[in-house]
Amino acid sequence: MSVADWFRVRGRSLQSISFSLHRLTGLVLFIYLLMHLSYLTSLKLGKEVYESLIATTVSPAFLPFDILLLLATIFHGVNGIRVVLNEFGIGYEARKAMLYAAYLITAILWIIASVAMYNFVVGVR
Amino acid sequence: MDELEGMHTRRVLEPAAWILQMVSGLLLAALIAIHLYVTHFSTHDALAYENVVERFRDAGFKAIYTLLLLAVTFHAFNGVRAIVLDTDFGAKNRRAVNWLLMLLFVAAFAYGILLMSSV
Amino acid sequence: MKVIFNIRRFDGEKDYWQSFAVPVFRGMTLLEGLFYIKENLDGSLAFRASCRMGVCGSCAVKVNGKPVLACETQISSVNSSKLDIEPIDNFRVIKDLVTDFEGFFRKHEAVKPYLIRNDDNYENPVELIQTPKQMKSYYTFSLCIKCGACYSVCPAAATRSDYLGPAAITAAWRFIADSRDEGKEERYEAVCGDNGVWRCHFAAECSEVCPKKVEPAKAVQKMRIRTALHAIKKVIL
Ligand code: FES
């Protein structure tokens, strides 16, 4: 009995696996939120500090992280909407279809957002 | 007194937190989409210092960002609270966990508001 | 044809895997395979079973990671020539495949899984009339055989030992949805604690593994909305 049981995969259906991923992405986003909020303190420290931070983090070197973070965000959001609907008692019978739809929508949004992110970071400034 | 407080948290905290978690989650789906659009997908200069400061001074943006901040801090800290309460450790320290994470939520929200109003 | 039964055993001190080659015939169940081992290969193998027909809920074991009723699962349906057989998760193992259900049954008791009436009168009993539609509203949830399969896959039950779990909460809903019942209030109170409905996060694996298709995940969601409304109403009024 340990928290590793939240991430069991063997013998489990996609329902459980989505729960595991939701919890995992939730924790990732929690840590990112803390980083994001502390990062913003630089706004108070003046233009130079802020812009040097932006120059390092909004750069091709950070692009893979950005894209992974986008995936975590989009998955947590789309899967979260599915879970909210189910938890409020909507669409229990359609839960499998909703699950597949959530993965499909996640994939589509992720591709679109990644392209936009690539253009933003690498594109002309 | 102790008993009463226990009864009280037993009665309101859990159901209210659950409903707010769901509602803030739905809200965040929309607000974060807006946030990402504004900062990354609209113009290339969205993250320039002047533009950020200007947005912080605009009443409309301020309203949306306050709502986003409120929803995201609640959702994050309440989410962690739920995760910790899923364990025997959380069960044993239930009251401390509730207080600590709700306090952190308020602190994070206050920090964000202060930051927003001081730039 | 022979199938390998790879069994995770526990003798009170140590855990170990042991393999047995079991000759199988068409239609043979897992439980028959376990009996074959006990009778012919190793008499010390412990497992629980009673009815052999999917009614008593004694025989749930984990096969290749998934909990099933040994008596209702044909070996051929697992579609593998090697079966990893383990006791179900989230229960304390007593010996081999036998797990301790004490806490599980206490949780069942906690939600008062019986009709509560204000007018109980055993001297002059009256018939409690119900329409077929009223019965249908809880019938599926009354089919639970307390095998523990749902509880064994629940991620909340895995880490929080006092979580009531899907089976007990489903039992609560089975009675709350029953038109004859008058004990709703007590059951809402029983599941409203932080070891109750709030620990469910809709992993919904319980509904996937339930051998009786009781849909525990559905019952827990219904129970939770009702409990939330009940709790909030009580504070406001
Ligand atoms: S032996 Fe009774 S349910 Fe399997």
What's the SSE blueprint?
The complex is a heterotrimer of chains A (125), B (119) and C (237).
Chain A: H1 14-39, H2 47-57, H3 63-87, H4 95-122
Helix pairs in contact in A: 1-3, 3-4
Chain B: H1 2-42, H2 49-57, H3 59-85, H4 88-92, H5 94-118
Helix pairs in contact in B: 1-3, 3-5
Chain C: E1 2-10, E2 15-23, H1 30-41, E3 60-63, E4 66-69, H2 75-78, E5 82-86, E6 93-95, E7 98-99, H3 102-110, H4 132-139, H5 149-153, H6 155-159, H7 165-176, H8 184-191, H9 205-209, H10 216-236
Parallel strand pairs in C: 1-5
Antiparallel strand pairs in C: 1-2, 3-4, 3-5, 6-7
Bound molecules: FE2/S2 (inorganic) cluster.
Describe this structure in words.
The complex is a heterotrimer of chains A (125), B (119) and C (237). By secondary structure, chain A is mainly alpha-helical. Chain A has helices at residues 14-39, 47-57, 63-87, 95-122. The model of chain A has no long low-confidence stretch (mean pLDDT 90). Helices cover 90% and strands 0% of the residues of chain B. Chain B has one domain (2-117): 3 helical TM bundles of succinate and fumarate reductases (Up-down Bundle). The longest helix of chain B has 41 residues, at 2-42. Chain C is built from 10 helices and 7 strands. A 5-stranded mixed sheet of chain C has the order 2-1-5-3-4. A two-stranded antiparallel sheet of chain C has the order 6-7. Chains in contact: A-B, A-C, B-C. Bound molecules: FE2/S2 (inorganic) cluster. The site of FE2/S2 (inorganic) cluster has 12 residues of chain C, from loops.
Tell me briefly what this model is.
The complex is a heterotrimer of chains A (125), B (119) and C (237). Chain A is mainly α and 125 residues long. Chain A has helices at 14-39, 47-57, 63-87, 95-122.
Q: Averaged pLDDT of chain C, please?
A: 94
List SSEs of chain A in N-to-C order. Answer: HHHH
Q: How would the global form of chain C be characterised?
A: elongated
Distance between the ends of chain C = 69 Å
Q: Element order, helices and strands of chain C?
A: EEHEEHEEEHHHHHHHH
Ligands, deduplicated = FE2/S2 (inorganic) cluster
Fill in the keyword field for this structure.
heterotrimer; B: 119 residues; mainly alpha; 3 helical TM bundles of succinate and fumarate reductases; 5 helices; 0% strand; disordered N terminus; C: 237 residues; alpha+beta; Ubiquitin-like (UB roll); Fumarate Reductase Iron-sulfur Protein, Chain B, domain 2; 2 domains; five-stranded mixed sheet; two-stranded antiparallel sheet; 10 helices; elongated; binds FE2/S2 (inorganic) cluster
